[in-house]
Amino acid sequence: MKTAFYKYLGLGLIAFTLTTASAQDKHDVSREQKLQQLKKDLNLTDDQVLKIKQIEDSYNDEKLELKKKMKEVRQKEFNEINAVFTPEQKATLKELHAKKHKNRKGAN
């Protein structure tokens, strides 16, 4: 039971720290879609949508700093948890990660 817990915890931490090159593009598309849906649902004017975009943009630097800090915290957490694993568990975790990554590539 504990072994499964650590496997999933490790996999979760690895998956959580991975990033993709297209994340920003997806974010921009998602942001625009959300704004357009909000515009439709609330009957916003173009000026209101522009103001919302400007407000969101004004927080970009602050959000970026928080993201950097979270990445550092996650890495520290991962390192501490990883130190708990035996060499055999680390090897198994590496295999599980490779298998998961292979399956993800095969799904594309």
TrEMBL record:
UniProt-recorded name of the protein: Periplasmic heavy metal sensor
Superkingdom assignment: Bacteria
Keywords, alphabetical: Signal
UniProt signal peptide: 1-23
Keyword Signal: yes
Gene3D superfamilies: 1.20.120.1490
